[in-house]
Fold:
Amino acid sequence: MIRHFVEKFAAQQRRPVRGVTREAFTLLESHRWPGNVRELENALERAVAFAESELIAPTDLPPSLRERADMVELGTAQAWSLQELVDRYIDRILELVGGDRERAAEVLRVHPRTLQRRDRRLEKARLARGLHEGSAKDPG
Structure:
């Protein structure tokens, strides 16, 4: 389907675009496409218009595709979601202040409850993963 839309819009726009890079394909393939085929079609029409070479690169795709919530493998490099970057940053600050949550909240310029809510969110995620992993294990 991606190839079909690229060929269609390249012909319509008289652009020499003939495909997508592996990285762009990975982003396109991993996107959830809440707007279904029309959203994909619009994204590729835009990408063909902005492509700077014969292959559509990630930078030619709409920003919404590049700002995924999930981690995406791009060749050997990795891109993290904003939430994951925030969590890593908070973890680093907590490490620097010796685990003192009050001090970390001051450094981060947030209310201490913000860190408490984050801890609860992470704990719920850990429990959910544990329950999910536990259900897949053979009890015997």
About this structure: Residues 69-77, 135-140 have pLDDT under 50 and may be disordered. Residues 130 and 136 are 10 Å apart (CA to CA). The radius of gyration is 21 Å.
